[in-house]
Structures are given as C-alpha cells and as structure tokens.
C-alpha cells in the first residue's frame, strides 16, 4: 500500500521537559549506579542498580496481565521472602517477557550475580526489565556490566537513572518532594518510564519511588495502594496494559525516628499525600509523553454514586479512539463524548440529568447540547494543549479523575512502523 | 500543529464491492421506496420507506447506549403495541440523537405523516435515523418527501435502498439468500449500513433483513437473537458503540404455509441458519468498509471453557489499538497479541498452555514464541489483505469468532478531520 506520511514538526511531549538534576533530592540510604551493557544499542546506558540499606521496607504492585514477564514473577517471589530487599537491578532494551522457563532462569542468574557482587542473598535482589519482548534476555551482558554499575553508585544519580530506564520515552521522568513530619524533614524522590500503557516491543511502565522516612511494611503497602490508585491507575494512553508494569515504593528509614506503623500515626497521612503527589506527577508525565501525544486531557467525573462508576465513565471517554482523534483535531465533538458516557456500562444512568463541560464552558445538559453553548467557545477550549473535560452525573457525591492524551497520526506511525 | 498527511491510494473497502441488484431477491410483500428530501445534501437520496403487508411479524434489537436516539425509543414503544408494524421510515443525514423531548416529537410527527399517507396508525410505523447528532431533525423535509418515496415503492428496490441509508460507507451493503423449507422456496434479503461501530457525527449501524416465510413473533425473536449474536455482536471497528444501532428482522409470511411457531418446527433451524448467514455477510461487510480499513481480520478463539471467555479474548485482541496498528503495518508483532490475551481479564488463564497461529503458522506456545516459528512466515501471512488469527486456549471446547479491521492513518484522518 502506498500510504505516505510526514510530520513536519518534531514529536514533543505536552508541556514536559527533562528533570533538572539539581531538583532531585537524594534519599538517605539509596544509591544508584548506571552502566552500559550494550543490550540493544552499543554505548547506551542501559543497566541501573539501586542499593538500599539493611532494614529498608520495599513494596510493589505489578501488572495484572496473565502474560506477566519473568522479572515480575521473580519480584513477587522475592518480596515474599523474609530477607529484606537490598538491591534492584533494571535493564532496558529487553523485557524478558514471553520467554517461559528460560526467561525465569536468566532473571534468577542476574539476581545471583548482583548478590554475589554485593555479598547479599539472590532473593534480596529485585529484577526489572523493559524493552523488546519474546527475545532471550542477554543476561551475560548485564552481568558483565555490573562492576561498572556498582562502581558508579551514588546518592545523587536519580536523573541519570531516569534516563537509563527509558525506552520509547522522549524525555526522562523524575520528581522529588520533601515531607516534613513532626519537625523532621524527609525526602521522597521517584523516577518512571513509559510512553503508552503498553509497548510489548519496547515494553512497560516502570516506577521506583523512595523515601528515607521510617515506615513499616504494612503502612508502606497501604500508602502504595492509595497512591497508585490515584496516579498510575488513573492514566491511559491506548487502553492496553503491559506484561512488565511495576511500581515499587521504598522506605529506607535512614533518617531515624520512630517507625510509622499504621494510619493511626499522625505522620501517615502527610507522608501518604507526598508519595501520592510524586506518583501523580510521574503518572501525568507518562501521559504527556504518550506515544504521538499532542494534547493532555484531564477528565473529571463527579456527582457519581461511587468512585468506581466515576472512573468507569472517565475511562470510557479517555479510551475512546473517536474522542481521542477529535481532541487531536481540536474538534469539540460533543456527540462522541456523550456516546462514550452512554456506553460506559452504567445501566441506570439518566442521561437527561448529567451535565458536561469543556474547560469552563457548559456544553451539554438535558440530554443534548446546552442551549447556551456556542461552538466557537468549545473550539477555543479545544485549541489549547491542555484540556479539561468535566462531567457531573448529578446522582451522588463521588469523584474520579483520569488523565489521557489524544490519538494522532504519530500514534499510528510510532506503532505501525516501530519495528521497521 | 503542522501535521500533514497524504494518502496516495484511494481508500477502498477490503474485498468488498457494491451489490449487484440482479442478485438481490425480492421478498414477497416487502416494497421499498426512495426519495430525496435534501436533509443534508441537495439531490442525495436520503429517505427510504419500507411497507409490509398486514400480519407481518417484526422484531428488533437496539443499541444499549444510554444516550439512545429518539427513533430508538419510539421503535421500542411501537414494537410493544398490539397493532402490527406496516411501515418503516429511514433517513440519512441526521441521527436525531442527543435531541431530548423535541427529538421524540419530531420522530413521532414523521411516523404520523407516514401513517396518514398509508392510512394506517402512527404506532404501526417504525422510524430510523442516521447522520449528524445533536442537530434538530428536519422532519418537515422528510414529510414533504414522503409522497415521492411512496410513489417509488417497488419490490426490487433493495439495492437503491441500501444506497439511500449510507453515511460514511464507501459502498452499499446488501445480500440475499433463498431458503428451501419443506419444498417451498422462500427469500431472505437484507441491507445494512455502518463503517465504524459508532459515528456519532454521521451515526450508526442499521440493518433491515426480511423474509417472506411465515414465522411467529416468538420464533422470529429467537432467530434474531441467535443471528445477531453470531454476526453484528461479533464485529468491532473501533470498540465504540452508537446511539442509534438498530437491527430489524421482518417475516411477511406472504408466501403462505403453516406458521413456524417455535424451534420444534423442523424448518426453524434451516431458516435461522439462512438469516444468520445473511447477517454475518452484512456484518463482515461493515468491517470490510470499516473507517480507514486496509486489512480484514478474523479472530477465532477456541478451546475455551465457555463462549463468553472466547469472545472476551477475541475482542481484547480485536480492539487493541496496538494490535490493529501492527496489522496495518503487516508486522507479525506476536507480543502485542499475547499481551492482549493476557489482559483480557480471564483470571485463571494459563498462558503456558495456549497456542497462537497467524494463518496456518504456529507462532506461540509454552508461554512464548514457538521454536519452529520463523518471522518470514509470519510476515508472509501478515502481508495479505485477509488475515486469520487463531488461539487455542486448551481448557475447554467452546469457540468464538470476531471480525475486525486494522487501524490506519486513514482512521485518524477520517475521524480527526470529519467535520472540517
């Protein structure tokens, strides 16, 4: 087929630039080292090792995809062991997914090599991989690069680490906050990679967030679930989910203080808020750098009976290829948004009661276009690179927000031509 | 944004041409009349009236979208009345959706005008609309065109009727079969329109299928459910569903014989098979003419515990933008198909047991790429305009098939630039 395509502007993330290393706060106890293993491209920094002090707490959430990658399986195993996690090893260029028993063996051997170098046990190492799937992991190259990565270990390496885990990402994603808890100042710093919800070829969303506050495993687990539910579980680029998605939250406790055991501790909520802020910023950064994205959309659904139905409707809007192509075209195509609300699966939804806004412009009510609506006003909102969509279901008090990007020629180009 | 795009080949449906009127068998008792009302484009034949003899049985299935259009609401009302349906009135150019109470009034007035012309009751008329949504239906124009449509009524007008209901369709969709039941020959003829699962702007899938066999309302209802489940409920272009989707099955009984009361009648299965064949052909035609389609894919999932899980996995593959862009690019991207299977939502799926074929090439088994697989063979299958994907889940005996098309630059173009 003689289809041709040209994009006369470079593809750029929506209002997102690379992090300034000076703004990334070291987390006491965490050191990061980067090396070039030559996994896919010679000279590319493609291996990251993160080391943690003894007694750090580490918790994670992982993809629910049944085709989960070998490193995901091993992470889950190792997180269930009694020995505390002391190191993470991450490679880009190969996802070690769809690789069966042989993939598990290669991931285990990578962990064993890290353990040997650090004089810890293999089950104290968590492995992560991202990149091409269905190809054998060249773990020998990773093992050979470990001494260089360990020699590079330092506390202020977060920005370089964020670069080392990129795949189709255009810019690195990292952010940092301080948390003042009972007069003690702690740090929360995180990195992430990902540019679609899934790239099985150059796979995955990965995120690593650490704090030096002292937090029990149970409290950390609760914070992670809360933060992920408000951040990474609120984004969609193409609706697909990956084989390797992993989000890790670490508390080193290196700044000593009484341990935050549970949510009864007054410091719990404050720290949870900061962790959540960090993850929301990273999650939004993934959408801003979504494949082919030219627009960033926040879809807020309020007035629902529960958060689940709000999220269901927000995702129906945010996943619809018709809505996403309309946003690409800056077309205030109300019909597509209303239709997506209609098929979201809320059986008893009364469409005559809901109201819909684009930015601050009321566009639909009483089952159709608002009488006051003028298309020029909708078009003005749609022309901006950041667009807010708000729906009031008028049947309850719950709210959910989802972030998504538009669907452009470049999305098709990136995904159709990726391997050629 | 200075995105530019050019397609150097005309957009053409995949292996689909307009029906030959000579192959469309009249259905005894059914007459079709077409007229130009000037709803959207002057001179365009945009109004279709279908008349039926007294004692015809008529059944329908409709969109489950909560934003259903006014004509859908009225169809459901009229089908619940005791008076038999005697006429259908269809317009293109305006969907009468998202129009609230005023839309219902305009649809009712259209029915009343048809009834007055034919000397029947308004509730004996079913209205259908397709086209722009959120605009008032210009029902006065439709009413003014009715005398011309009625003057045009004839039994061999199926091909022109198929053209009159098109919106973004590139070619008209119609097909015909004969059914020999106990030595008597009956006719089954149907038309359809639609080119995405949804086009809220130029909205909808519509299909009208008629037979002259005598069938009870209950038996006809059972046949319709069966046939739709095997046809229109097995296709996806973009995963969106419309505000106006309607599928109507008519039995005039004009070729007299004892009425087929239920499935105990030996003729029931034969007629149901023929109706199902007609609907499958029309459903596939919609996919072949899917917006921007360059490839037609049949996705068959077998070895499931039940049909529902097979369909769930087939739809996960068929809806994935990543899979669909890979098919557009003729890229045998196994990882994307495996990942879609993995996130289809079957919690206890053992991915190490399933096998995946592209055409007759075994591409994946044992949780990863098949040892025998060579990418050239996958690429050869992907180069064809029609591609079969087969998955064996190896956990039961159920099967489901879904038809879909690829996702091309033209899909984005059509949907991004539609209103401009």
Highlighted features:
homodimer, 420 residues, alpha+beta, L-amino peptidase D-ALA esterase/amidase, Ubiquitin-like (UB roll), 2 domains, five-stranded mixed β-sheet, globular, disordered N terminus
Q: How would you classify the helix and strand content of chain A by structural class? A: alpha+beta
Largest interface: A-B, 77 and 77 residues
Radius of gyration of chain A: 22 Å
Basic shape of chain A: globular
Descriptive notes:
The structure is a homodimer of 420-residue chains. Chain A has 420 residues and is α+β, with helices and mostly antiparallel strands. The first copy, chain A, folds into two domains: 21-288, L-amino peptidase D-ALA esterase/amidase (4-Layer Sandwich); 296-416, Ubiquitin-like (UB roll) (Roll). Chain A contains eleven helices and 17 strands. Chain A has helices at residues 70-79, 100-118, 139-151, 158-164, 217-230, 266-288, 307-319, 321-328, 334-342, 375-382, 409-416; strands at 3-7, 31-35, 47-51, 57-62, 87-94, 125-132, 173-181, 184-193, 206-211, 235-236, 246-251, 296-304, 355-358, 361-365, 368-369, 386-392, 398-405. In chain A, strands 10-17-12-16-13-14-15 form a seven-stranded mixed sheet. Chain A has a five-stranded mixed sheet with strand order 4-11-9-8-7, sandwiched between helices. In chain A, a hairpin with a 2-residue loop joins strand 14 (361-365) and strand 15. Chain A is globular and about 70 Å long. At the A-B interface, strand 1, helix 2, helix 8, helix 9 and strand 15 of A face strand 1, helix 8, helix 9, strand 15 and helix 11 of B.
